[in-house]
Amino acid sequence: MGKQNGKNKIDKGELETIEKSASVIAGNARESIYCLSIVGQVEGHYLLPDGQKATKYEQIIPLLVTVEEDDDTDGLLVILNTMGGDVEAGLALAELIASMKKPSVTLVLGGGHSIGVPLAVAGRRSFIVPSATMTIHPVRISGTVIGAPQTYRYFEDMQTRIMNFVCDHSRISREKFHELMMRPDQIATDVGPVLEGREAVEAGLIDEVGGLDAALSCLRQMIAEGRKN
Length: 229
Fold this sequence. Notes:
By secondary structure, the protein is of the alpha/beta class. The protein contains eight helices and eleven strands. The protein has helices at 12-21, 57-69, 87-98, 116-120, 149-168, 174-181, 197-202, 212-228, and strands spanning 2-4, 7-9, 23-27, 32-43, 54-56, 75-85, 104-112, 125-128, 133-135, 194-196, 208-209. Residues 1-10 have low confidence and may be disordered.
């Protein structure tokens, strides 16, 4: 970040970056942390209607590559408040975050619904505030589809890929995740439950209940341990 008289100050260029990509480098004398927000709906292969909050995955991918390659950036903080969105785009971003060598922490504020679930568990450590919620539901699509066995197998295969990713990057078992996903007694916009912050931790989906201070403290500890090694 820009500095003036020893104090952090957001300059015009950084303000434009925040407006366009909802991201900023939060630096101090100890470390430089890249803060990335994933908000609204994850936009994938098709443009969303005007007036709808969206995170464009084609903008986030190069940002993540830059964070990984930038020697001046020590770690990544991903803050989520998303309703979900394009399955392939969301899963691609989650895979990219999970494959980074830089320390990464995710923090769910508001909501981490649908494809936001893989994104929420993609960091090395995940946090959620008590008031946040997460919706787990099967893969589905709106509009006209081809009514053929291959279509349903495609949905099932995509669902399996999501479940494998979530279970590989969290403490939840495949049996528990599948049970939650197919629960018939709770319906939000789909079949499946809405988990509050502490429930998500108890289920093994998220590592800890905590806010910004806890997430930053964890990330700073990871950075310090990385420097020692």
